Amino acid sequence: MKNRVTGIGGFFFKSKNPETTKEWYKNHLGLPTDQYGCTFWWKDREGNDFSTQWSPFKEDTTYFNPSEKSFMMNFRVENLRELLAELKKEGVQIVGEVEEYDYGKFGWILDPEGNKIELWEPVDKAFL
């Protein structure tokens, strides 16, 4: 498999008050926040639109489980199912099942430190 990770898809973290946190980042750093956090738009080498998401989650979220960490990374990948099959053969712990939405496919793994990593095969045009 040529490219495993093609970029950072997002950074997610737990927050005591996500709304206050988003407002602080909007006011002090100028992030254009919405209900999900902030979407950063950029172009790849061929000029295609791509996005990276920054999102605070409520501190009692179970979305990061089974990790006990207060953050989760999201990496953009190509061919998610093929990558997960390869990772499984390599002994990487897969978490849950692949989920598919209009904006992409998602899968999850754990690294050796117990960090939950979200792998995203995106459909960026769904956000435009």
Summarize the structure.
With 128 residues, the chain is an alpha/beta fold. Helix content is 17%, strand content 45%.
Describe this structure in words.
The chain contains 2 helices and 7 strands, in the order βαβββαβββ. It is an alpha/beta fold and 128 residues long. Helices cover 17% and strands 45% of the residues.
Q: How far is it from the N-terminal to the C-terminal residue, by CA?
A: 29 Å
Number of strands: 7
Q: Considering DSSP H and I runs of 4 or more, what fraction of the residues is helical?
A: 10-25%
How are the strands ordered across the major sheet? 2-3-1-4-7-6-5
Strand content: 35-45%
Mean residue pLDDT: 92
Q: Assign the structural class, choosing from mainly alpha, mainly beta, alpha/beta, alpha+beta, or little secondary structure.
A: alpha/beta
Number of helices: 2
Gyration radius over CA: 15 Å
| Uncertain runs | none
Outline the fold blueprint.
Layout: E1 5-15, H1 18-29, E2 38-43, E3 49-58, E4 71-77, H2 80-89, E5 93-101, E6 104-110, E7 116-122
Parallel strand pairs: 1-3, 4-7
Antiparallel strand pairs: 1-4, 2-3, 5-6, 6-7
